[in-house]
Design brief:
Residues 2-117 form the Gfo/Idh/MocA-like oxidoreductase N-terminal domain. The chain has 345 residues and is α/β, with parallel strands linked by helices. The protein has 10 helices and 15 strands. The protein has a 9-stranded mixed beta sheet with strand order 14-13-12-11-7-10-9-8-15. Strands 3-2-1-4-5-6 form a 6-stranded parallel beta sheet, with helices on both faces. A hairpin with a 4-residue loop joins strand 9 and strand 10 (219-225). Helix 4 runs parallel beside helix 5, helix 6 (123-134) crosses helix 7 (168-184) and helix 7 (168-184) packs across helix 10 (318-337). The radius of gyration is 21 Å and the shape is globular. It starts with a strand and ends with a strand.
């Protein structure tokens, strides 16, 4: 499979993995800054400053798009015009209208559109999904999710990251909320959120608190910030990416009628007997560890390879990416209009 990667920030991770895979060949990359030149040289592949010229000139089987969010729609449509299947990095687009246009366009052109929510390929996330489905904590009542860390100061030197759609909610929060949808199968009905930029003062948010309500009555509380020193975040706790320090902490907690479950420690607290129920009795702690876990990026790429070969549909379709983006858009609208927003307005 001849693959091109458009964008060499997060795309660099994909490109390096493809170089090590037997079923894929990295044909070319696109990027237009000094880092892209350095990385293309390291990868020993042609670099195009204009991704459209790359698409026009290279014989490809598929394209991985990791460009800034607002360029996703244009790039996907250009690839679709050339009959190329796409893996587009999350979020699927910067707006739900753009996402719907992309989905419809790919259907019209009969090309497959896969969204890069790679944590759906995480063994730990799927272990969590299985545990919740097993009923070990009973009926889900509430969820608490935290994503709190301090990004490097140089991170925000790129202009698009300090403008609307470049902040942590869309870049990082989209991961947590997609995890939520994947492991619970909840249908989110409404969102109420507040956001602040008191840490850096940029146009984009640096702290968000959101309350989400699901159709079955489950309530989710989500706090996100990328400007405070903290050990509580998926990246720091799950140990799936070696560039991050590891802290043996939990970033998600699930509360049910029969018990509570923490992630990623998989510590579960319940009462041992029905007649010993209530705050005067001691909780029993159990652990449901996962012995080994594969790299989710590799698993995602292997799945994309299988999609390109034909016979299977993408595990994360455009429609799935749209569902997650709809929640983010509702959260943003709630922030802007200072009100509770229904996803079905």
């Amino acid at each position: 499979m001849q693959i091109a990667v458009l964008g060499l920030n997060h795309g660099y991770t994909f490109a390096k993995q493809i170089k090590e895979m037997k079923g894929m060949t990295l044909a070319a990359v696109a990027g237009n800054n000094a880092a892209a030149i350095e990385r293309a040289n390291e990868l020993e592949v042609p670099l195009y400053q204009d991704y459209k010229k790359l698409i026009d000139q290279c014989q490809l089987d598929g394209v991985i798009i990791t460009l800034p969010n607002h360029l996703h729609k244009e790039a996907v449509k250009y690839c679709a015009d050339h009959g190329l299947h796409c893996l587009v990095e999350k979020p699927i687009a910067d707006t739900t209208d753009a996402a719907r246009e992309m989905i419809d366009y790919c259907k019209q052109k009969q090309v497959k559109l896969m969204v890069g929510h790679h944590r759906r390929f995480s063994d730990k996330i799927n272990h969590l999904k299985q545990l919740l489905a097993s009923g070990i904590i009973g009926e889900l009542v509430g969820v608490n999710m935290v994503w709190a860390l301090a990004k490097d100061r140089n991170y925000y030197k790129e202009a698009w990251r300090i403008k609307a759609s470049g902040g942590p909610l869309l870049i990082n929060g989209i991961h947590d909320l997609d995890n939520l949808l994947h492991v619970t199968n909840l249908e989110i009905e409404s969102a109420y959120a507040v956001a602040r930029n008191k840490i850096r003062g940029f146009e984009v948010e640096d702290a968000v608190t959101a309350i989400l309500e699901a159709s079955d009555g489950t309530v989710i509380n989500y706090f996100l910030t990328d400007g405070v020193p903290s050990p509580w975040s998926y990246e720091f706790n799950v140990m799936e990416n070696p560039i991050y320090h590891f802290y043996e902490e939990d970033c998600y907690h699930f509360f049910g009628t029969k018990g509570s479950l923490a992630f990623p420690s998989f510590r579960c607290f319940r009462y041992s007997e029905e007649d010993q129920y209530g705050w005067k009795h001691a909780l029993t702690e159990e652990r449901f560890p996962l012995e080994a876990a594969a790299d989710p990026i590799t698993a995602e790429l292997e799945h994309f390879e299988a999609v390109l070969k034909g016979g299977i549909a993408p595990r994360v379709t455009g429609e799935e990416g749209l569902k997650t983006l709809e929640i983010l858009e509702a959260v943003n609208l709630s922030v802007q209009e200072k009100r509770k927003v229904s996803l079905h307005e």
